[in-house]
Design goal:
The chain is of the alpha+beta class. The chain has one helix and five strands, in the order βββαββ.
Length: 79
């Protein structure tokens, strides 16, 4: 399952989602082939929404995957 690195634990951590929260989530296998493209939900992506999406896509990411929003890397099965 994809582990997203978008939850802010401390005020020193960057807001990875802020600039891309309304863009499409693209999931690619480790070879770079697209597995899924998911439009942002109303209000934009949040960490909980991404975790739910990772659970929904779990069967498709068993072989390894990376996740990007608006081209920005936001998570992986390899984290």
């Amino acid at each position: 399952m994809i582990c997203f690195v978008t939850d802010i634990q401390h005020d020193r951590e960057p807001d990875i989602l802020g600039p891309v929260r309304n863009m499409i989530l693209t999931v690619r296998d480790l070879g770079g082939a697209e597995i899924a493209a998911v439009a942002a939900p109303n209000g934009g992506w949040t960490h909980p929404a991404l975790v739910l999406t990772a659970q929904e896509l779990a069967g498709k990411t068993d072989g390894g995957a990376d996740a990007f929003i608006g081209g920005r890397w936001v998570g992986s099965t390899e984290v």
